[in-house]
Amino acid sequence: MRGGIAKKGNNYYVYLWIGGKKKWFSGAGDSKRRAEKILNEKVSELNSGAYQEIKKIRFKEFSTLWLESYAKSKTKPSTFKSYKDIIDKHLKPKFGDYLLTEINTALLQKYVAMRLESVKPKTVINEIVPIKKMFKHAVRWGYLKVDPAGYVERPRVEKEEMDILTPEEIRPFLDSVTPKYRPFFLTAILTGARRGELLGLQWRDVDWRNNQIHVRRSVWKRQFVTPKSKTSTRRIDMSPHLAMELKKHKLACPK
Length: 255
Known about the structure:
The chain is built from 9 helices and 8 strands. By secondary structure, the chain is α+β, with helices and mostly antiparallel strands.
């Protein structure tokens, strides 16, 4: 297998003849010893059959490919929409014209620092999620050898104290609610279920014998979807007061 080292200006480059074509490899800088190491590694990869050509693609093209080939079929519709919005609104404008191989950890960390100047840490963490997933797939699909997002540090999130209604505030609130919506808000207050989970409840989810509500689905954009995570599928205890109110509501509801 023919190959060698050439010096251009102050830098050393490695070349190999692969399939009748001369392939060049950078990365040695001004170190001949590093160039020799790269040459030995490449020759070893070729001899063992482990050598793989890195496909060239720009971030904007790869992100579209990733959304269509992976995210669209492997994530929930709400998650897919969230990823697509993040990519279209923030990631493509920032990294779109970069080749995937030009994006390194420092560049991604700089993006994190820049976003923290205008949005909350939790928002930035949400944006990091599709970045990390995309670059993992880029390695698996042969577009990268090393994952630059693997070492990106997530910002710290200070735990915010949740603002909840006090017992003294609950009764005046429920008294002011339009009567037909009272069971909805009472269930929300006494179970802590998410809005989509509450909208997805059906009478068969209520276990009258054990006084529990079984969360099995959620509503997103007028369609039923599976709950947010595996732990979101759960049973919630009903207080006697909530059970009584829901029984009244069931009797008053049309079939």
